């Protein structure tokens, strides 16, 4: 099992694509699948497909290959979208394993789904892989109970960004990620966050062993990823409201340092880290516990003329039990 592979394409979700109704319904579903494949590629997360994926049946004998390359195919697809899907599929690697069955049960039905069987097998072996279905009709999303043979376990179905990041956040616990694995998974679990140089050394600087704070880290970093920049963008001019909103979204106390701390030289130095070649001070912090264990961060405002999120970016600067305070 290639440990760099985290996704596999699902054939079963194409089974009724030929009867999806208006052309724009199928076009929209394929566009969403292509978007997800592009995101997997950008994040370097690895995706494979069954060697015979192009033969997946859309109903009435129509196959993906026909949809993409046969001008007489009765199911019409936007030409540009067909090219984008073909390119995205060509960028994936194939797997072939004749030892595996081709059918899996989920949602009350048994379906032809060799890709899903492959994901199920990988999960059984302790390397969790999610499936990328065509997001059409009643395709499931999130954790789904899948049965292959006599074994039933949960497999992630990813159709959008929320399931995508949820999968990687769950991996941290599912695979009992140590500090090195946490760092490796963080860019996919919290893709909106930036990271100061050497920030990961701080995972050993909490008052408790890393494994004792791991779930809290996932929850709080997830909150910063999902709501941090948006909250700063909306409420930066009202610090009290910003504190309330951000704390409510993350679920724990979040605050800026007070004026006396900011004027204290040792306190400033203790919270300074390098990011993109510049020394920056990380005053804001999430309090994992009321009196100990902190995630220090800062908001980088959006820069005119520089491509990036319109609301800016949260950069995590350091993890620590407690930084220096005046006195």
Folded structure, characterized:
With 327 residues, this protein is an alpha/beta fold. It has helices spanning 23-42, 64-69, 79-90, 114-124, 161-174, 179-189, 210-235, 239-250, 259-262, 265-270; strands spanning 7-9, 47-50, 57-59, 62-63, 93-95, 103-106, 109-112, 130-132, 142-148, 151-157, 194-195, 254-255, 272-275, 278-281, 284-289, 292-300, 313-320. The termini are far apart. The mean pLDDT is 94.
Overall outline: elongated
Number of helix segments? 10
List low-pLDDT spans.
Answer: none
Q: Summarize model confidence as the mean pLDDT.
A: 94
Give the ordered list of helices and strands.
Answer: EHEEEHHEEEHEEEHHEHHEHHEEEEE
Tell me roughly what share of residues is in helical segments. Answer: 25-40%
- Structural class estimated from helices and strands: alpha/beta
- Terminal-residue CA separation: 55 Å
* Major sheet strand order: 11-17-16-15-12
Rg computed from alpha carbons, rounded to a whole number of angstroms:
23 Å
Oligomeric assembly = single chain
The profile of the biggest β sheet is: 5 strands, mixed
Number of beta-strand segments:
17
SS strand fraction: 15-25%
Keywords:
five-stranded mixed beta sheet; 327 residues; four-stranded parallel beta sheet; alpha/beta; elongated; 37% helix
Give the gist of this structure.
The chain contains 10 helices and 17 strands. With 327 residues, the protein is of the alpha/beta class.
Write the layout of secondary structure elements.
Layout: E1 7-9, H1 23-42, E2 47-50, E3 57-59, E4 62-63, H2 64-69, H3 79-90, E5 93-95, E6 103-106, E7 109-112, H4 114-124, E8 130-132, E9 142-148, E10 151-157, H5 161-174, H6 179-189, E11 194-195, H7 210-235, H8 239-250, E12 254-255, H9 259-262, H10 265-270, E13 272-275, E14 278-281, E15 284-289, E16 292-300, E17 313-320
Parallel strand pairs: 1-2, 1-8, 2-5, 11-17
Antiparallel strand pairs: 3-4, 6-7, 9-10, 12-15, 13-14, 15-16, 16-17
Helix pairs in contact: 1-3, 5-6, 7-8
């Amino acid at each position: 099992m290639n440990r760099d592979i985290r996704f596999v394409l699902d054939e079963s979700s194409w089974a009724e694509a030929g009867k999806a109704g208006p052309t724009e319904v199928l076009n929209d579903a394929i566009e969403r699948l292509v978007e997800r494949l592009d995101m997997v590629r950008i994040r370097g997360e690895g995706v494979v497909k069954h060697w015979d994926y192009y033969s997946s049946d859309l109903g009435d004998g129509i196959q993906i290959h026909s949809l993409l390359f046969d001008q007489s195919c009765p199911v019409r697809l936007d030409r540009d979208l067909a090219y984008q899907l073909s390119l995205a599929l060509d960028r994936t690697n194939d797997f072939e394993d004749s030892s595996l069955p081709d059918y899996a049960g989920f949602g009350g039905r048994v379906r032809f789904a060799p890709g899903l069987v492959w994901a199920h097998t990988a999960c059984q072996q302790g390397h969790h892989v999610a499936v990328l279905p065509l997001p059409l009709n009643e395709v499931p999303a999130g954790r789904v109970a899948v049965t292959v043979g006599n074994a039933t376990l949960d497999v992630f179905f990813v159709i959008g960004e929320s399931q995508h990041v949820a999968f990687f956040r769950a991996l941290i616990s599912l695979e009992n990620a140590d500090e090195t694995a946490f760092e490796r998974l963080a860019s996919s679990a919290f893709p909106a966050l930036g990271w100061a140089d050497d920030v990961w050394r701080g995972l050993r600087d909490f008052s408790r062993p890393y494994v004792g704070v791991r779930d809290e880290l996932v929850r709080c970093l997830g909150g910063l990823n999902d709501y941090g920049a948006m909250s700063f963008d909306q409420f930066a001019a009202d610090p009290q409201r910003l504190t309330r909103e951000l704390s409510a979204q993350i679920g724990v106390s979040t605050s800026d340092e007070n004026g006396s701390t900011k004027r204290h030289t040792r306190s400033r130095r203790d919270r300074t880290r390098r990011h993109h070649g510049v020394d920056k001070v990380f005053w804001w912090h999430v309090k994992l516990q009321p009196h100990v264990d902190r995630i220090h961060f800062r908001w980088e405002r959006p820069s005119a003329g520089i491509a990036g999120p319109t609301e800016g970016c949260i950069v995590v600067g350091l993890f620590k039990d407690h930084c220096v305070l005046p006195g």
